[in-house]
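Need tokens for this chain, all 111 residues.
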Amino acid sequence: MSSFDGSGAGPSPDWISFPPQGFAPTEIVSWAWTVHLKVGDPTAGTLAVTRASDGATLKMTKLPLLAGYGSYGAVAFRPNGWQAAGGETYRATFSGAGPTLSWDVKAVDCP
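Here are the structure tokens for all 111 residues:
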């Protein structure tokens, strides 16, 4: 089986994040955040998260991930001492593993 042979015609972005840019349920914004890079070693990078409403820098703890699944390298970070709040925007900046990447995550309360 060749699930990841790269022969498909679908999108192949240089990087992927979770939560992704844009709106995301508050619950998953409080889960681990991941950065996946097509090229390079993401484990060399750091993730800074800033809350837009007050400019506070929020602590993140780097987590090890096992390699060997898929074609992208990945690293994870867990919120350390904070929970996402509905209506807040969080600016993520990943640096130190190639070009600096930035995206905004807008937490939404889902009933």
